[in-house]
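Take just one protein record:
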Amino acid sequence: MKYDVVVVGAGIAGPIVARNVAKSGYSVLLIDKKPAIGTPKQCAEGISIKAFEKYDIPYDKRFINREIYGAKLYSPSGYELELRYKEASGVILERKVFDKMLAYYAAKAGADVLARTEALDVIRRDGRIAGIKAKHEDETVEIHADVIVAADGVESTIARKAGINTYAPPHEFDSSYEYEMLIEGYDPDLIHLWFGNEVAPRGYVWVFPKDEDRANVGIGINSDNPQTAKYYLDKWLRENKIPAKKILEVNVGVVPVGGFVKELVKDNVLVVGDAARQVNPMHGGGMAEAMEAGTIASKWIAKALEEENLGLLRNYTTEWWETDGERLQKVLKVRKVTEKLSDEDLDLFIQILSGADAEKIAGGDYGEVIKALLKHPKVILSPRRIKLLRELL
């Protein structure tokens, strides 16, 4: 088989690249090792409503469970911070359908799509990578391509085989554990997030409603924690007297929350999405980040093919780092500071921050918020808090 581009991995980034490059008139093959694209999910399934228009994705009720109008944050001692909007700010997806539909959009744009096709290695010819070896329906195949895109997740085989350094220490990953279950008592128009060093070390517990009485209930904690994410989630459910007896699905995953890949291109191989650690380090969400990276990568792939100059692929690294990479580096600074916060600090900040402040901090646009916090009496009286906040300026 011979294509202009082969994309390995049909999560979020891969189909975006495949669709965009196919629209530009080039031959594209999108492969995924799973027999059913989108299954199993490893995601809380929440995404900003702005992503649909920005990345040209139909707002299709087939993969939208519920519109969300904001968020509610809970401190260790029970203080609450609510962000509520008049119009929907986000949605809870059905990732099993959403991922498959993204692959469908790529196919409609002209890309070939093969499920149950696992990338095994790269093919080298005359000192360069000329394609990949894969197993399709238990048969080994060779797929030759001018450009290879590694969108094959956290443990990216293709990035590693191509010699791209994707190493990050264990502390730069979170372990997550999630139940899709029946649960009542929480406003289904909001997502709910609980923080605390005894609740979810370095992370948070979430309830993302999918129906009035059904939600994704999960947790993310630092992966080098001596206890498991399941331990903390089950503990939280017990302490809140929430019976875990109506569990419809269990999902386990590892989420990169740092360790962004420095060189996103090596010769004719590009790495995108989770494989490149392109995830928001503060909340662990990576769908919008994968869409952005896929959009930038596909632009430079099309340009490189059009001008028959694969050296142009390196501009993907440059553009991503100058835009989304710079933003995510700021968010990473916030994450490193929040790791040092005590439960008393978390109580205080949730009491004195506004919803808009919390949104800016999570997005990396926090300069003015930090300056305002530094003027608060309870911050001024604490040299430790002043030092932590100044680390962000």
